[in-house]
Write a structure and sequence with these properties.
Enolase-like, domain 1; binds flavin-adenine dinucleotide; Uridine Diphospho-n-acetylenolpyruvylglucosamine Reductase, domain 3
Length: 289
């Protein structure tokens, strides 16, 4: 049962950070509540006080400025999959967002809540790593800018300090001439495995490529060494190299077996899905609308 909680309703991000600093570890940020309420109800986390950030207007905005999509932390998954601006500039991200759970969760859950919770079985972070997204966080002493790659530090862990909240995700589109694809497999609602690929072909070879993988290890990861091995290769050569990359994936991802599959199964499917996503990306990828 959910016990009575106090709630602050700040209207600016610095005010919310001030509340976190004032109230200490028994205060939690409340966004969509999709994860938080479940955890509180089951007694998996403890809190006396919620800091509700849904009334901070700047956190609910999406804008396209200087060639970068700026997405406020409380924007819901459903808004991201339907917003024309996002569909036009970030089609592969939309492909990932539209596969999150079901319409109820996508209506309730926010992108900020998803990234801050950093459940290993998540979709958006994997796609955002291929876009080389950045994040802006605000704390009582000001704001910090960092790469998403550095923000997602481990299973259910991020680089946030106790008095900080995530306010914005900044996403540059894939460079001109690139294609992107996000693929996942799932048995239940959350992904068993998710992969994202971005690629540009030139004269039948992979001129440049980015790959990311989620759900295999504790947190989503860019596969930079594998990218370096296939850069310049023909597509069939690249797919063969990916198929032979289990040792590299094991060393770099620390695969974890869980209720959704053994570590071996996940490694096998990773190679299959990475090859398929790369092929789709290299052939133009998911189209913008
Ligand atoms: C049944 C179910 C199925 C799901 N399936 C999928 C799936 O297929 N793919 C997928 O990717 N995800 C899935 N999810 C996860 C879902 O995407 C997240 O639950 C949701 O996005 C969390 O957002 P929220 O706003 O509800 O976060 P909340 O529940 O409000 O918060 C989650 C955590 O993040 C913290 N937090 C929230 N916002 C901020 C912020 N701006 N700054 C600092 N801390 C913050 C909170 O304090 C809390 O610890 C599923 C969830 C459920 C319940």
């Amino acid at each position: 049962m959910l016990r009575a909680l106090r709630m602050s309703v700040p209207t600016t991000a610095p005010e919310a950070a001030g509340e976190l600093a004032r109230l200490g570890e028994n205060a939690k940020i409340y966004a969509g509540g999709a994860e938080l309420v479940l955890l509180l109800r089951r007694g998996l986390i403890d809190a006396d006080h919620l800091v509700n950030i849904k009334h901070i207007p700047s956190l609910d905005s999406i804008s396209w400025e200087g060639g970068i999509m700026r997405i406020g932390a409380t924007v819901t998954h459903h808004r991201l999959e339907t917003e024309a601006l996002v569909r036009a500039h970030l089609p592969m991200f939309v492909q990932a967002e539209s596969q999150v759970a079901n319409i109820r969760v996508r209506n309730q859950g926010t992108i900020g809540g998803n990234l801050c919770f950093n459940d290993p079985h998540s979709d958006p972070g994997v796609a955002l790593l291929v876009y080389e997204a950045g994040v802006l966080v605000v704390g009582r002493n000001g704001q910090r800018q960092m790469r998403l790659q550095d923000f997602l530090t481990g299973m259910y862990e991020t680089a946030l300090e106790p008095d900080e909240l995530l306010v914005e995700i900044q996403v540059p589109p894939l460079p001109a001439g690139w294609g992107g694809a996000y693929l996942r497999v799932h048995r239940l609602q959350r992904p068993t495995l998710g992969v994202a690929a971005g690629a540009k072909m030139q004269d039948g070879r992979l001129e440049d490529v980015r790959l990311a993988l989620g759900c295999v290890g504790p947190t989503p990861k860019r596969l930079e060494e594998l990218e370096a091995k296939i850069r310049g290769a023909k597509l069939d050569e690249a797919e063969r190299i990916i198929g032979e990359s289990k040792t590299y994936l094991t060393q770099s991802l620390q695969p974890v077996g869980d209720i959704l599959g053994s570590a071996d199964y996940k490694l096998h499917i990773s190679c299959v899905l990475l090859g398929r996503a790369l092929e789709q990306a290299a052939n133009g990828g998911v189209k913008a609308e």
